[in-house]
């Protein structure tokens, strides 16, 4: 089906295992919702990258422009996964010493007609006009941060929306960077952070 769980223990030398627990993925209408937990030794982890592929052997690509900050309980919504196909997801953990370990992969079938949740993050570019960014907040009283990155991982614009109540929200991006200059055409990423809630979506800008 569209749901799979796994328990993976990752060892670095003779130290305490860095464990990714309960890594699972589920298709939710228009996005893949991933959840996992890091155990106490997760403090050895400096960053977590979510990666996706069409086959278990890869090749894998990053789902977001920047790695996630490790937390005990984490989630990520990949809103750019196309429906009606099977995706493979894995986590790339980087330690403070620079060592990288992989958790997964897990298989997620992107077809689940009885899913309950809608999209967490979506972007709608108008032809040459502002881009409407819609997002959903699940838990109350969280500071919401929306950032726009280019393919090199450089933040071109950041929006601090402040605390948001649960529900659907939207934001208009005028295609300008932090200095007010119009960005060039190309691929951009919108990244949402709201507490432990993370999501990223690609925006192809055909017209600058």
Q: Care to give the gist of this entry?
A:
With 208 residues, the chain is mainly beta. The chain has strands at residues 3-10, 18-28, 31-38, 45-53, 61-62, 73-78, 86-95, 100-109, 121-125, 131-137, 142-150, 155-164, 167-173, 186-194, 197-205.
What features would you describe in this structure?
The protein has 208 residues and is mostly beta strands. It is built from no helices and 15 strands. The strands form three sheets. The protein has an eight-stranded mixed β-sheet, with no helix packed on it. The termini are far apart. The model is unreliable at 5-16 and 112-118 (pLDDT under 50).
Q: Number of helical segments?
A: 0
Strand order in space, largest sheet? 1-2-3-6-15-14-11-12
C-alpha Rg (nearest Å): 17 Å
How far from one another are the termini? Answer: 41 Å
User: Main sheet, how many strands, which sense, barrel?
Assistant: 8 strands, mixed
Q: What is the mean pLDDT?
A: 80
What's the layout of helices and strands?
Blueprint: E1 3-10, E2 18-28, E3 31-38, E4 45-53, E5 61-62, E6 73-78, E7 86-95, E8 100-109, E9 121-125, E10 131-137, E11 142-150, E12 155-164, E13 167-173, E14 186-194, E15 197-205
Parallel strand pairs: 6-15
Antiparallel strand pairs: 1-2, 2-3, 3-6, 4-5, 4-7, 7-8, 9-10, 10-13, 11-12, 11-14, 14-15
